Amino acid sequence: MARLAQTAGLTDIQQEILSTVRDFVDKEIIPVATELEHRDEYPQAIVDGLKELGLFGLMIPEEYGGLGESLLTYALCVEEIARGWMSVSGIINTHFIVAYMLKQHGTQEQKDHFLPRMAAGDTRGAFSMSEPALGSDVSAITSKAVQDGDEYVLNGQKMWLTNGGTSNLVAVLVRSDEGHPEGTAPHKSMTTFLVEKEPGFGEVRPGLTIPGKIDKMGYKGVDTTELIMDGLRIPANRVLGGTTGRGFYQMMDGVEVGRVNVAARGCGVAQRAFELGVQYAQQRHTFGKPIAQHQAIQFKLAEMATKVEAAHAMMVNAARKKDSGERNDLEAGMAKYLASEYCKEVVEDAFRIHGGYGFSKEYEIERLYREAPMLLIGEGTAEIQKMIIGRRLLEEYRFQG
Ligand SMILES: Cc1cc2nc3c(=O)[nH]c(=O)nc-3n(C[C@H](O)[C@H](O)[C@H](O)COP(=O)(O)OP(=O)(O)OC[C@H]3O[C@@H](n4cnc5c(N)ncnc54)[C@H](O)[C@@H]3O)c2cc1C
């Protein structure tokens, strides 16, 4: 049988990387994922394995010790990993966004300093825009940096940092009015700081506290935290790109590739849900035959597989567009929106196919059911994606009358 979600036109190297990752997922992730997730345990052995495979440096250029691969290769790897356990894809996602932002916007000194360590997986990235009072409305950020000689002093509270505890480099977006006169548009008075810190919780650097893990309904194993800055002093050479006032654009660029990544995660989780559903439907008998032989269940499987295929095609299209050097905000927004909605629907159908057993923690689908909703929120909610898509459509189809 042809597997779902095949990608035409891959190079030999891409196919080799994907087959290695798939093998790793089948042998090292799937067998332990549910147990680790139920214990909310950080998957250290899996992370070590990914490090060995070079996945932390997948898109980092070869001159910095990475594999120099495309966004498409990265997204397809993420899809495979999320098929095994979505939390593991979360561990590499923020790292990947920070490395991408450094590659695109960092000064030469910042690239030379950070990228080789990030490629090796020794420096691990997290990114921080959200605050307790805002997530969608990034322009309302209140955390602030004030210049003091060769340093900036940062104050404020951040929220929802994926890998906030385990990372040792956080790209933090704050307001920095220095040099930006009164009345400057909010998005032009923001700066991204590259904040190095010790991994762990508590005061991880003078003026910087990571209070502890937020207890979540799913997406467990990976740590999600707050971050409190109280007189945190950062040298001026740790302003991303060396110039203040560009942080909003740098973060949005990072989030745009992050959206392809979230779409890829949706594809991976949906694929796994389909696999679980189609297997269970052939094992469970009711009214004298496997439930897969009831048309209602077959229709469900047909709908699920169609959604898996459609989401995969849109995700691949968005990644290829970015790789070709073109603007891909429309495609990334559509892919993220569709893949996360379809993921939720496919997981729900697989859950229904499992009947009462889907409600038992012994079945993998229970974990997927708690994981899928995060994709509806992370890297911009469905409403935010629709705002981006709508705005871009009105640009493309401007009324000429
Ligand atoms: C597990 C997890 C991990 C995360 N990791 C990170 C991370 O690593 N770094 C980081 O910076 N952030 C992270 N986030 C934060 C995430 O990006 C935000 O939660 C998300 O952007 C939504 O923001 P919010 O929660 O403040 O919701 P709000 O912005 O308050 O939105 C609430 C609701 O209102 C809707 N809404 C808002 N504005 C509009 C509008 N104009 N029109 C219509 N509807 C609207 C939203 O779609 C949503 O349904 C994470 C979140 C979670 C749950």
UniProtKB/TrEMBL annotation:
Domain Acyl-CoA dehydrogenase/oxidase N-terminal, chain residue ranges per copy: 11-122
Cofactor: FAD
Listed GO MF terms: acyl-CoA dehydrogenase activity; flavin adenine dinucleotide binding
All copies of domain Acyl-CoA dehydrogenase/oxidase C-terminal, residue ranges: 245-394
Domain Acyl-CoA oxidase/dehydrogenase middle positions: 126-230
Xref: InterPro entries: Acyl-CoA_Oxase/DH_mid-dom, Acyl-CoA_Oxase/DH_mid-dom_sf, AcylCo_DH-like_C, AcylCo_DH/oxidase_C, AcylCoA_DH/ox_N, AcylCoA_DH/ox_N_sf, AcylCoA_DH/oxidase_NM_dom_sf
Gene3D superfamilies: Acyl-CoA dehydrogenase/oxidase, N-terminal domain (1.10.540.10), Butyryl-CoA Dehydrogenase, subunit A, domain 2 (2.40.110.10), Butyryl-CoA Dehydrogenase, subunit A, domain 3 (1.20.140.10)
One Pfam family here: Acyl-CoA_dh_M
UniProt keyword terms in alphabetical order: FAD, Flavoprotein, Oxidoreductase
Protein name: Acyl-CoA dehydrogenase
Domain of life, per lineage: Bacteria
Family listed: Belongs to the acyl-CoA dehydrogenase family.
